[in-house]
Amino acid sequence: MAKPKILFTLPTDASGLRILGERVEVVVAADPKPETIKAMVGNADVLVVRTQLPADLLERPHHLLGIVRHGTGLDMIPVAAATAQNVPVANVPGVNAETVAEYVVGSFLTLARQLNLMDRDLRTAGWTESRRRAAEICHQAFRMRVHGHQRQLDALPGFVIGADVDTICRESDFIAVCCPLSPETLGLIDARRIALMKPGAFIANAARGPIIDEMALAAALTERRIGGAAIDVYAEQPLRRDHPFLGLDNILLTPACRRPHAGERAAHERGCRHAGVAVDRRRAARLSREPGDLGEAPRALAHNERSQAMGTDTKIRLVEAFPASFPVKEPVTQPRRQL
Predict the structure, then answer these.
(1) What does each C-alpha distance from 71 to 92, 96, 187 come to in angstroms?
(2) Judging by beta carbons within 10 Å of its beta carbon (0-12, 13-18, 19+), is residue 216 exposed, middle or buried?
(3) Strand arrangement, sheet containing 202-205
(4) Tens digit of pLDDT for each residue in 29-64?
(5) Which end of the chain is more exposed for a tag (fewer CB within 10 A), N or C?
């Protein structure tokens, strides 16, 4: 007895085709053009939809037992025509939920950090103007199993599995290089360890350029032996114009990405405002010879008490010398004597 025939309008993952091939005959359309689908639908028992179907598809002779949207929604299928001909229509809602969520979060991160613009600028115009947190995001937000390596493995966070570097390279789908540069880490990710990586693995270097053997990485990317890379630091900065990274399409290049995203800028502005209020109040208290109440002002101000010059540039010096990301509460307002 002949196997049922399933027609895919677009190619799908090879593993899925292998599973189906054990029970049915799988046919993949040569292209998604309307005339191609119309010419092939007459021989199919089930149509799996991954592209827009022609509105008049079912006006042709066919013996379809069902139409399945390989994904969410039914907008690609002429549902009314199928219903009129008693052809069941189905979809697989939620099948892409994780992928869509990852895309949305990844897009937010890309847009917030403007990684796409940095990559474009570095390729075309040249140079332009951690570790624990990354592991937490991977584990909590994406439910990844996280391996980590450092000198004291017993000091790793509880959700991180201690492993040696070879094991990390061999078993990881995503590898983040976040360690300091030292004689021990110079060339840590060399050609041998890159060769251990999975064919679809990705590696990101946000630490120091010389930790990765750039030529070995470029060769692996050129030969498509790994999935891709994201590089923010380089052995030689700025990146020279003939560097092999610049000719690759499977690498994301950013020039020591340190520009703040919108949330950091807002925190920075809040810190500036609080620093300004605290400085102004201290100056007023000094002039009135009364102790000023700084409330929960930035720690930078207390540190800066050693400075005897509280001139008009104090706010600028505070912002330059200390981060604005520390927790800040509004200073307590108290009545004071008019100066």
Answers:
(1) 5, 7, 44
(2) middle
(3) 174-177, 202-205, 228-231, 251-253
(4) 999 999 999 999 999 999 999 889 999 999 999 999
(5) N
pLDDT tens-digit series, residues 267-294: 444 444 444 444 444 444 444 444 443 3
Which whole number is the average pLDDT over 202-226?
Answer: 94
In this prediction, residue 43 carries a pLDDT of: 93
119 and 237 share one domain:
yes
For residue 147, which phi and psi values (nearest 5 degrees)? -105, 150
Query: How many angstroms separate the CA atoms of 102 and 297, rounded?
Result: 38
Contact between 157 and 135 under an 8 Å Cβ cutoff? The reply is: yes
pLDDT band at residue 95 under the 50/70/90 scheme: confident
Domain boundary residue, one of 69, 91, 113: 91
Nearest Cα to 119, choosing from 237, 263, 250? 250
Return d(Cα 279, Cα 292) in angstroms, integer.
10
Higher-pLDDT residue of 329 and 16 is 16
Going by C-alpha positions, the residue among 244, 224, 233 that lies closest to residue 189 is: 233
Q: Which of 304, 314, 246 is nearest to 276 (CA)?
A: 314
Average pLDDT, the chain: 75
CA distance 83 to 66: 10
Which span out of 39-43, 264-268, 321-325 was modeled with the highest average pLDDT? Answer: 39-43
Q: Which long-range contacts (CB under 8 A, 24 or more apart) does 319-327 make?
A: 319/268, 319/271, 319/272, 319/275, 322/298, 323/271, 324/267, 324/268, 324/269, 324/270, 324/271, 324/272, 324/275, 324/298, 325/264, 325/267, 325/268, 325/271, 326/271, 326/298, 326/299
Residues 81 and 202 in one domain: no
**Buried b vs exposed e over 62-82: b needs ≥16 C-beta within 10 Å?**
bebeebbbbbeeeebbbeebb
Residue 332 lies in a domain: no
Closest C-alpha to 136, from 176, 96, 185: 176
Residue 286: domain span: 262-321
Is residue 328 within 8 Å of residue 274, measured between CB atoms? yes
pTM, 2 dp:
0.51
